[in-house]
Design a protein that fits this description.
It is built from four helices and nine strands. The chain is an alpha+beta fold and 206 residues long. It has a single domain, classed as SH3 type barrels. The strands form two sheets. Strands 3, 4, 5, 6, 7, 8 and 9 form a seven-stranded antiparallel beta sheet that branches. α1 packs antiparallel against α4.
C-alpha cells in the first residue's frame, strides 16, 4: 500500500523537533491562549492596496493606525523565496515575529490579531506563517487530515509568558506592512532555516 506522504512529512518534522529540543527541559504547556504552497501570483500595486483599506483597532509599531486590508488578495500560492533580514528598527522585516490581523482561512473577510513569522516578500506584501501557543503535537495527524501542518519553534521573546510556540508551515499569508501592529522579536537563524526548509516540503504536498 502506498505510504501517505502527510504521515512521512509529520515523522520528519517530529524527528527534526526532537533532535533540536532533546537537550532542553520540557516546558509547561498547560497555559493555552490563542497564538496560530506556494507558485507566483500577480501582486497588487501599493496604490491599489491603499485604496482598499479598512481601518482597524490598534496601531502599528511606528504609531500609525493599523489597517485591515478589505481587498485581501488571498493566501499566497507562489514559490516562496525565503529571506532572513531582521532589523528591529520599527519596520517589519523577514526573520521577525510580529503581530498583525490574520484572515480566517475559510473566510478572508473575517480574522483576528495573531503573531506571525515573516519569511519573505511578494511585491508590496510581506509573506508570513501563523504562530500559535496551542500544543498540536497531540493531534498532529488530525490536524494534517484537516490540511494543517505545524512545526515546533520552541520559546522566544515573542511570547511574554515564555510559552513554546508552533508555526503552521503549509499556509502562507500575505501581510501589508501597514497592517503590522507591533514587532515581537527576532526568530533565531537556525530555527528560521528549519521552518522554511519544512515549509517548502509541506507546500509541495498541498
Amino acid at each position: 500500500m502506498t505510504r501517505n506522504p502527510w504521515i512521512s512529512l509529520l515523522e520528519d518534522v517530529v524527528d527534526a523537533v526532537v533532535s533540536h529540543l532533546s537537550d532542553k527541559p520540557t516546558p509547561d504547556r498547560s497555559a493555552d491562549t490563542p497564538r496560530e504552497p506556494a507558485r507566483v501570483a500577480s501582486a497588487p500595486s501599493p496604490a491599489d492596496v491603499s485604496a482598499r483599506r479598512t481601518p482597524a483597532e490598534g496601531r502599528t509599531s511606528s504609531g500609525s493606525r493599523a489597517p485591515r486590508t478589505a481587498g485581501y488578495p488571498g493566501d499566497y500560492d507562489g514559490t516562496v523565496t525565503p529571506t532572513y533580514a531582521p532589523d528591529l528598527d520599527g519596520e517589519p522585516d523577514p526573520g521577525e515575529v510580529v503581530w498583525t490581523w490574520v484572515p480566517y482561512e475559510e473566510d478572508h473577510s473575517q480574522g483576528k490579531d495573531r503573531p506571525v513569522l515573516l519569511v519573505g516578500h511578494d511585491g508590496p506584501w510581506l509573506l508570513a506563517l501563523q504562530l500559535t501557543s496551542q500544543d498540536h503535537d497531540r493531534d498532529a495527524e488530525q490536524e494534517a487530515r484537516a490540511g494543517r501542518i505545524w512545526f515546533d519553534v520552541g520559546t522566544g521573546p515573542w511570547d511574554r509568558e515564555g510559552r513554546p510556540s508552533e508555526v503552521r508551515i503549509n499556509r502562507v499569508i500575505r501581510v501589508h506592512p501597514d497592517a503590522v501592529r507591533r514587532e515581537g522579536a527576532v526568530m533565531p537563524r537556525d530555527r528560521f532555516d528549519d521552518v522554511v526548509k519544512y515549509m517548502a516540503r509541506a507546500l509541495d504536498l498541498t
